[in-house]
């Protein structure tokens, strides 16, 4: 999720916290809201990629949209909102987002940002001291009946983070009671790279007994790979393998190519040349290319293998 529009860092908001200006429940009077920010349209949130913490009471509905998985070193992008379902304007409402111990060690609430997501009701957000872990608050002001106040928040997940990161949320405000939105778990996981392979062969029509097979390995991203190998496997009807930059093994009918690192969006090709034997007339001659030893591990291995078949029509002609 990419934040767009006016963004304010929590370091600026932290000063307001120290001055006791923008905390929501039971704190000193809230400062006058800033000039309303324009509506913000970030990247769409896909339900499959997120989970929702929510609570509905007579005072309204509060919701926190949370990503299921975040790459260490990147931002935990949250969307906090309050919908006023009462018949009157609510002077102040807010939400506390808590990363309880020991998950608090995996986040840096001081390296964060926020932006109003429409309506201009956000008057402040930032870290707040808590004995329970790392806490980040957001405050909304003067929300009319029927209106929704929404804020996008980015909180940095530390580079060394791994595994589950717990998160919970509570809320409240003037005359609307308390909201307990529950808790959930974010998975801190390194970005993965999806490699895929395609395989073409020549001659496509009739040709001599020689055939060449070209495998194209594409990194569909999002991450780069640090290592990968390509392995050709060919049928007993073929012999005399040749593959530049690869190691051939006629005994196992394989050719193995070290691909090295591959950037997201990039591709690399390797070609295996073979010759059909004289006793293969009428037989199917398949060749398979498989990507192996991928680092980091491929999250979608279904496209890591491709096969192409040729056939020997006579002792001198092969069609692929």
UniProtKB/TrEMBL annotation:
Keywords: Integrin, Plasmid, Signal. The keyword rRNA processing does not apply. This is Integrin_alpha2 domain-containing protein. One of its GO terms (biological process) is integrin-mediated signaling pathway. Transmembrane segments: none annotated. The keyword Signal applies. The lineage of its organism: Bacteria, Bacillati, Actinomycetota, Actinomycetes, Kitasatosporales. InterPro entries: OmcB-like_DUF11 (IPR001434). It comes from the Bacteria. It comes from Streptomyces clavuligerus. Residues 1-31 form the signal peptide. Residues 208-308 form the DUF11 domain.
């Amino acid at each position: 999720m990419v934040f767009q529009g006016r963004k304010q860092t929590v370091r600026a908001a932290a000063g307001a916290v120290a001055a006791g200006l923008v905390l929501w429940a039971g704190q000193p009077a809230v400062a006058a809201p800033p000039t309303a920010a324009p509506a913000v349209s970030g990247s769409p949130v896909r339900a499959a990629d997120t989970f929702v913490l929510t609570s509905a009471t007579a005072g309204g509905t509060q919701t926190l949209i949370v990503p299921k998985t975040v790459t260490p070193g990147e931002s935990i992008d949250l969307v906090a909102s309050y919908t006023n379902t009462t018949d009157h304007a609510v002077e102040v409402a807010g939400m506390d987002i808590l990363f309880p111990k020991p998950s608090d060690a995996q986040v840096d609430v001081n390296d964060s940002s926020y932006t109003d997501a429409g309506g201009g009701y956000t008057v402040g957000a930032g870290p707040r001291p808590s004995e329970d872990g790392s806490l980040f608050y957001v405050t909304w002001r003067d929300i009319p009946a029927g209106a929704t106040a929404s804020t996008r928040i980015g909180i940095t997940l530390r580079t060394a983070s791994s595994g589950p990161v717990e998160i919970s949320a509570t809320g409240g405000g003037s005359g609307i009671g308390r909201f307990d939105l529950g808790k959930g778990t974010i998975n801190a996981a390194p970005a993965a790279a999806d490699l895929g392979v395609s395989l073409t062969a020549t001659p496509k029509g009739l040709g001599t007994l020689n055939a060449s097979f070209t495998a194209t390995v594409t990194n569909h991203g999002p991450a780069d790979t640090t290592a990968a190998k390509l392995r050709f496997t060919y049928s007993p009807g073929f012999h005399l393998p040749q593959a530049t930059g690869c190691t051939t093994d006629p005994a196992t009918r394989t050719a193995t190519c070290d691909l090295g690192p591959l950037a997201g969006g990039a591709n690399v090709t390797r070609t295996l040349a073979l010759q059909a034997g004289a006793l293969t007339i009428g037989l199917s001659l398949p060749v398979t290319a498989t990507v192996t030893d991928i680092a980091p591990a491929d999250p979608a291995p279904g496209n890591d293998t491709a096969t192409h078949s040729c056939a020997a029509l006579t002792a001198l002609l092969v069609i692929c």
